[in-house]
Amino acid sequence: xxxxxxxxxxxxxxxxxxPWKRGVRADRQVLICPGCQAAHDGSAPLDHCDACGxxxxxxxxxxxxxxxxxxxxEAVRDDAxxxxxxxxxxxxxxxxxxxxxxxxxxxxxxxxxxKRSPGA
Length: 120
Hints:
Layout: E1 21-25, E2 28-32, H1 34-39, E3 57-60, E4 63-66, E5 72-74, E6 83-84, E7 90-91, H2 102-114
C-alpha cells in the first residue's frame, strides 16, 4: 500500500518498528511515509476517534477501532463521493492514482526477471 499523500511505496522492511505510520482517512486504512510525516502534520487529514479524539485508528472487517481507547464503530464508505488521491484531491471511486502504471511496472519487472520480451 503506498503513502496516501505522495504515493511512495514501502520497500522491504528492516528489523524493528516500521517508520511508516498507519491511520484511517474516510474510513479507509492508509499509510504515511516518513518523509510526509516530517513535512506535514501527519494527523491533520486523518479521521479521529469519536470517543477520545485520537488518530490512532485501525480499520478491519468493516469496523474502525481506536487503538488508544478501544472504541469501535462501523466503517461507513460512500463510494459515490470518491476517495482522496495522494495529493488530497477527490478522485472518482475505482481510480487509484497511486497505482497508475503499477501493471506496467510489474510487467517490466517480470520481463527483466525472466529475461523475455513482452508479449512472448
